[in-house]
Amino acid sequence: MKRVESEYAQALYDLTRDEGLSDRVLEEMRLLGAAFRTEDTYLRVLSAPNISKEERCGILDEAFRGKVQPYVLNFMKLLTEKGYIRHFPAACAEYEALYNEDHGILTVSVSSAVPLSKEQKTRLAGKLGNLTGKEISLKCTVDPSVLGGVRLDFDGKRMDDTVRHRLDSIRTMLESATL
Q1: Are residues 9 and 71 in the same domain?
Q2: Range of the domain at 128
Q3: Alpha-helical segments (H) within 70-156
Q4: Which candidate among 35, 80, 143, 169 keeps its CA 20 to 30 Å from the CA of 52?
């Protein structure tokens, strides 16, 4: 059985793709999904059983009418009415995954000890693009625990060339060695 966010995101993506609105809706879904992930109080209010569905949808109308594409607003209202609004951030991520798949875009998570320069990002995206044959979208994060190097996660794979990984490998090798 498909997850709720997958089914609803697929329906929204199909509609917006057919209407030529998938680019605009993607940007709005990215922004709203991130906002809802960081501020879960809003999701709790929209899920509150002591507030009627009409009032919750009114809250969405007041906050977003005229500010987001009507399909996005109606999508949020539908999830609210069905009691699934807590799945909205996951539905946003699913929508983006559908868009990326349809447009040949591969999202790669990059972890490094220090921020990558623009030139480093461009070179990395170019090499990965040549390797995969896809357009690359980098999601870079700084993780001081890697100590140095980079770790790439994409397509369920991990390429780990970090100092932390190398040290862990040496430790494992030394622990398993017989002296």
Answers
A1: yes
A2: 104-176
A3: 70-82, 88-102, 118-132
A4: 35
Strand 135-142 vs strand 105-112: parallel, antiparallel, or unpaired?
Answer: parallel
Q: Is the pLDDT of residue 23 over 90?
A: yes
Token output for 28:
């709005």
Per cent of the chain over pLDDT 90 is: 70
What is the Cα–Cα distance from 31 to 35, expressed in whole angstroms? 6
pLDDT higher than 80, residue 2: no
pLDDT digits (tens, 9 = 90+) for 39-74: 888 888 898 889 999 999 999 999 999 999 999 999
C-alpha angle 40-91-38 in degrees, rounded to nearest 5: 25
96 and 147 both lie in a single domain: no
Taken in order 66, 70, 72, 74, is the CA torsion positive or negative? positive
Environment class of 68 (CB within 10 Å of its CB; exposed 0-12, middle 13-18, buried 19+): buried
Buried b (16+ CB within 10 A) or exposed e, 21-56: bbeebbebbeebbeebeeeeebbeebbeeeeeeeeb
For residue range 84-118, what is the model confidence (pLDDT) as tens digits? 999 999 999 999 999 999 999 999 999 999 999 99
